[in-house]
Design brief:
The complex is a heterotrimer. Chain A is an all-alpha fold. Chain A contains 14 helices and two strands; from the N terminus they run ααββαααααααααααα. Chain A has a two-stranded antiparallel sheet. Chain B is built from twelve helices and no strands. Chain B is mostly helical. The longest helix of chain B has 34 residues. The chains are: A mainly alpha, B mainly alpha, C alpha+beta.
């Protein structure tokens, strides 16, 4: 026997359908958030794609389809070189940040017994204090007349300021490794914390040394955290332009600075849009390669 | 035994060194903000509060601060409300493709901010929308909603839906069930989400850089000050204040989280 | 499969479930359920996990809506009513005591629209605290309560609403054995005291037998049998029920003769059997399954002097359970041993019934049950 709905009005029937379909109620509840993301993210990204096929002539946008901007990228070596450098610097930042973060996450997960939360808070405090000020602070620390140089000189260790500290890719790497430290530590810590301690004991029990246990049990099990950390550091740093602008000098310029200039001095929005899309695609390809490589690594170790 | 201990020690030493690396740039701010010198160099020349006094006199700073607070509070409120809606939907209703929709909302976490910034800039420009604090807020909302949703999903997942069912069973409709049961239980998550999103918005520079009109937010104001060497010490003073305030807020958030209602059903079943 | 228990006095029916089906996607959780619950009875839904008993209960409460069929409570069609307007209340499996409220506030939760004055409400709460034997606990926080206390508060919170039916979703599952047995007695007494119909979901057959006036046994979404505890145990109508409730030995038989309410049959394992006749086999040659409970057997060392209902066996392993002992007896031509339970009235039985000793098992005509043979 079917539920008889014939004696209900249309409104009642709609209400009933709504009550009976859990998914419908769920989607309704989710819809405000989805609408905001649709309008504030998806729509602008479509505009970005559209604009990348337009052309800028002086202050006017020419709204006809053209591939000029993409052709420009391949024609002018400078964009290609800077994108390559950005990816290289970001990969280096990722590597340095994750390598520095791993032992600390390991320390908190396995050696801190009480007050783990205090350690987490200690690590996140610098992260929540103005990004701009932290980058600026590194500029002050590493500068020609900066904290390190003046400190060492007043101690009499050096006579002349060291010039190699600031305005180079190394300064960018240090600053970014500092800026993204918390983002790298937290996922690694979480994945280490999740590991069942008896697995490690079992490995030791089965005769593996501490080092081999780490390589064959702990490291593979924490790999999801390491991957998350790597991506969370790599992806945003490719687009960063504040750090290179403040501490990178001309040798530290990254693709973010170029894109930003297209929306400022250079005033070429379509080219900026095209460069953004090329950068995003490149980042996606690099991420896929990274994920593929970790898959291979995982199979080998197991 | 000896080897374990030495390994522990070297790890502890590493941890302390790492913390020093983390805190060095933060420590520079208050240290030189009290130094009686234009230049941020050693040796220190004596104690002064004049950089703080200079801050108090700066009209631009006060305007920027007010702007940042306005944007921050609005964004925190809106993203937390959106986060509550989304978290409730995905944790309480069986839906197909909810995983896909969640990752869609999370996208702003994994695209470079500069790309979000220029996309929105172009959209506003084409749509003829004048850049203002509102457009900055919209940008921040995109960035903050995923965080808010993550915090609230984990809080919602932590408590069984039978509490809400019990309220309905005892005669309350959806509206009263939310205010009498759901909201009090997720309150620590709501507070955490509010503080987190406020902090993100308050500190955000890249989106604001592209999306702000003539009204500067605090990070934009700081950025403009960095070009003038004589303004640097007061920037340090400002930084020192922000460090202290954020620390207080973070500890407050943690205390609230701990003081929140312990969810009893876990310990029991 | 479904059994519709029609009732002589329709006015006494408080819940009427008619042809209810519930699908979750492609999975059918409840399949064509027909059931009447009578006013004032303690009714249990019993079955293994995943049998659909909780889904059926949640449909009574209004948390799930039936895919098809109707549900009436006290003569009103509530099939599609939301939970908050149904005249039923529920005790949840984890009790769902609101963690941000104290005991009094929890009990008073459902009374917002009751129209009672503050003093009246306070009085009612005090009465409820008396009823659940927790006087003076009103200001305790939800976190300070033990499992048993939580359960009582959950009961009070539901009963203060004076529901027409109280629904209980495995409320004793989280308690340890001793406390569970104590709460069973209290629950039964409480039900008699307040006179409200209880619908109780459990997977524990002993619990269901102890508490219920009637039990519906469910399996894979179907209601297999609805009956009283005694009849379910003594005269189950299917192998599933016989096996699920208590322990049962099954034997394949074929019918020889059926007359005067007595069936005589033959079993490859037991030889000739005689049993009070029941439904499944009528014509000579019909196959049926004979089911005998472990405690219905007697053991002796001498060949019995009777024509039917005996078998020769060899003592296998035994298990001492305190008040009784279980013996496993190997019979020629049967793979698994027959399970026999004897009360430990005197002495230590396993010293007498030593392993490998040859014994005879006997049982009476009315000890066995005839069941339809299943594949």
């Amino acid at each position: 026997m079917r539920i008889s709905t014939s004696n209900y009005s249309l409104l009642n029937r709609l209400q009933l359908k709504f009550r009976k379909s859990e998914a419908l109620r769920g989607y309704t509840l989710l819809s405000p958030t989805l609408m905001v993301v649709l309008l504030g993210l998806l729509f602008p990204l479509l505009i970005l794609v559209t604009l990348s096929f337009w052309k800028q002539e002086y202050v006017d946008l020419i709204q006809t389809f053209t591939l000029t901007n993409y052709a420009d990228f391949f024609r002018k070596k400078i964009y290609y070189l800077i994108l390559y450098r950005s990816i290289r610097i970001s990969l280096l930042v990722m590597l340095v940040t994750v390598l520095l973060a791993y032992p600390l996450a390991y320390f908190i997960a396995f050696h801190v017994k009480k007050n783990k939360i205090m350690w987490i808070i200690l690590i996140t405090i610098p992260f929540w204090t103005s990004y701009l000020l932290r980058v600026f602070s590194w500029k002050v620390i590493l500068g020609y007349n900066g904290v390190i140089n003046s400190g060492l000189m007043s101690l009499g260790v050096i006579g002349e300021p060291l010039e190699f500290l600031l305005y180079n890719p190394a300064a960018v790497v240090i600053t970014l490794a500092h800026a993204w430290a918390a983002v790298a530590i937290l996922p690694i810590y979480v994945s280490l914390e999740k590991i069942d301690r008896s697995l490690i004991e079992a490995s030791r029990d089965l005769g593996e040394s501490a080092v081999m246990t780490f390589i064959r049990v702990t490291l593979p099990l924490s790999l999801p955290g390491v991957i998350a950390a790597s991506l969370l550091v790599f992806i945003p740093t490719v687009g960063d332009y504040v750090t290179p602008a403040l501490v990178g000098g001309t040798r530290g310029i990254m693709i973010g600075n170029i894109i930003q200039s297209m929306f400022g001095k250079a005033l070429n929005w379509p080219l900026g849009a095209a460069l953004s899309i090329i950068s995003m695609l490149t980042v996606t390809i690099v991420v896929c390669i990274l994920l593929g490589a970790t898959q291979l690594f995982r199979k080998k170790v197991a | 035994m000896m080897r374990t201990r030495s390994r522990l020690n070297s790890l502890s030493v590493y941890a302390v060194l790492y913390l020093m690396f983390l805190y060095a740039p933060v420590a520079v701010l208050p240290l030189f903000s009290f130094n009686d010198s234009q230049y941020i160099t050693f040796p220190l020349l004596g104690f002064t509060l004049k950089w703080y006094a200079q801050l108090a006199e700066s009209q631009g700073l006060q305007l920027a601060l007010m702007n940042s607070i306005k944007v921050g509070l609005s964004v925190a409120f809106l993203s937390t409300v959106l986060g509550i809606f989304a978290a409730k939907a995905v944790t309480r209703y069986r839906m197909r493709r909810s995983g896909f929709l969640i990752s869609f909302i999370m996208v702003p976490l994994v695209i470079p901010e500069i790309i979000l910034g220029i996309s929105l800039l172009m959209t506003f420009s084409i749509g003829g929308i004048k850049l203002s604090l509102v457009t900055v807020g919209i940008g921040h909302l995109m960035l903050c909603t995923p965080f808010s949703m993550l915090v609230l999903i984990s809080r919602m997942e932590g408590f069984d839906k039978s509490y809400e069912e019990a309220a309905q069973d005892l005669g309350e409709n959806a509206w009263w069930t939310f205010w009498r049961v759901t909201f009090p239980i997720i309150l620590p998550g709501v507070v955490a989400s509010f503080l987190l999103t406020f902090t993100i918005s308050f500190d955000e520079f890249i989106l604001a850089f592209f999306l702000a009109g003539t009204d500067a937010t605090l990070p934009l104001h700081i950025w403009s000050q960095l070009r003038f060497p004589d303004k640097l010490p007061s920037v340090l003073a400002l930084g020192a204040i922000i460090v202290v305030l954020s620390t207080v807020v973070i500890f407050a958030a943690e205390l609230i989280r701990r003081g929140g209602v312990q969810l009893g059903n876990k310990s029991n079943v | 499969m479904a059994t519709n228990q029609t009732c002589e006095f329709m006015s006494d029916v408080i819940i009427s479930i008619k042809e209810v089906i519930k699908d979750f996607g492609k999975v059918r959780a409840v399949n064509n359920a027909n059931l009447d619950v009578i006013k004032g009875e303690f009714f249990s839904l019993l079955g293994p996990s995943g049998c659909g008993k909780t889904t059926l209960l949640r449909m009574l409460a209004g948390f799930e809506l039936p895919t098809e069929g109707t549900i009436e409570i006290d003569g009103q069609d509530v099939t599609l009513s939301p939970p908050n307007i149904r005249p039923v209340n529920m005790v949840f499996q984890n009790y769902a005591i609101f963690p941000h409220l104290n005991v009094s506030e929890n009990i008073a939760f459902g009374m917002r629209k009751s129209g009672l004055s503050k003093t009246e409400l306070t009085e009612r709460i005090e009465q409820m605290l008396e009823l659940i034997k927790l006087p003076g606990y009103g200001q305790r926080g939800a976190q300070e309560l033990s499992g048993g206390q939580r359960q009582r508060v959950a009961l009070a919170r539901a009963l203060i609403k004076q529901p027409k039916v109280l629904l209980l979703d495995e409320p004793l599952g989280a308690l340890d054995k001793k406390l569970r047995e104590q709460m069973q007695i209290e629950l039964r007494l409480l039900q008699q005291q307040v006179g409200i119909t209880f619908v109780f979901v459990t997977h524990d057959q002993e619990e269901a037998l102890t508490l219920s006036d009637r039990i519906a046994v469910m399996d894979q979404g179907n209601i297999i049998e609805v009956s009283t505890p005694g009849l379910l145990y003594e005269q189950p109508k299917s192998q599933f029920v016989a096996d699920f409730i208590g322990t049962m030995n099954f034997f394949d038989c074929s019918l020889n003769e059926y007359s005067d309410g007595v069936a005589i049959g033959k079993s490859g394992e037991l030889g000739d059997v005689k049993v009070i006749a029941q439904q499944p086999a009528e014509a000579p040659g019909d196959k049926f399954t004979l089911a005998i409970r472990p405690e219905k057997f007697s053991i002796s060392f001498d060949a019995p002097d009777q024509q039917y209902n005996f078998v020769k066996g060899r003592m296998g392993p035994s298990a001492y359970l305190g008040d009784r002992s279980h013996f496993y007896i190997h019979v020629e031509g049967r793979d698994n041993p027959i399970s026999v339970a004897l009360q430990n009235l005197s002495g230590v039985l396993d010293q007498i019934y030593t392993t490998d000793r040859e014994v005879w098992l006997t049982w009476s005509d009315d000890a066995a049950v005839m069941l339809a043979m299943e594949e």
